Automatic annotation (TrEMBL):
It comes from Actinomadura algeriensis. GO terms for molecular function: DNA binding. InterPro entries: CheY-like_superfamily, NreC/VraR/RcsB-like_REC, RNA_pol_sigma70_r4_t2, Sig_transdc_resp-reg_C-effctor, Sig_transdc_resp-reg_receiver, Tscrpt_reg_LuxR_C, WalR-like, WH-like_DNA-bd_sf. It holds the Pfam family Sigma70_r4_2. Residues 12-121 form the Response regulatory domain. It comes from the Bacteria. Signal peptide: none annotated. The lineage of its organism: Bacteria, Bacillati, Actinomycetota, Actinomycetes, Streptosporangiales. The keyword Phosphoprotein applies. PANTHER family: NITRATE_NITRITE RESPONSE REGULATOR PROTEIN NARP, TWO-COMPONENT RESPONSE REGULATOR. This is DNA-binding NarL/FixJ family response regulator.
Amino acid sequence: MGGDPLEPRRITVGVIDDHPVVIEGVRAWLACDPRIEVAHVADTVDDVPAGLDVLILDLNLHGRLVLPEVAELAGRTQRVITFSQLTERETVLAALDAGACEFVAKNEGRDHLLEAVLTVAADRPYVTPTAAGVLAADELAAGERGTALRLSERERTALLLWFQSMSKASVARRMGVSVHTVEMYIKRARVKYAQAGRPAPTKADMLARAIEDGLIRPEEIVGYRSSATSPDASPPLSTSLVT
């Protein structure tokens, strides 16, 4: 029997954890919101079904960090929320660098996990207190060292190609990832700048910040010519940084 066509489609969520009690707890938390449906549970990343809106993934499965699997899933367009009791700075940054949309600590509770699911499903950035603290500390340490804001290599690559007047679809093809993943790299860079007190709401602002920090060199941008030959090829940089 089909559902009401006027009723909004529910957000489908997968939960992967090697502790059944955690899975049951997360299911109970998510059941509090009628917009969410748990469509997959498992204790490994094997056979994750396609089409899940969000995947909540424990970083430590059966005694092993699954950061490579985070990167693989993110590369396949899966929105991943890493959910872990491991909150060391290096672990949180590694998860975000691997392509996780958000890091939620297991002690942050139901409200933060629910909010993360809803915002990540809508392709909006969300920063939990744990992630915010790690990013802020990382930028403070960078300032004390006299170094620039820290972006992952994938974030920098996405920004560089985007600044070169490429559409996000073209960037995705060049990097071998989905458009969604490219958008998350850009959004995560924006979040990092906002956390550092240097908001970059537009493409032009982002380019200015990246050049200030030495993340992008002007000569990498000026004079770029797309190899595309179609009539809808991206316009020159000088006309494309206003949005």
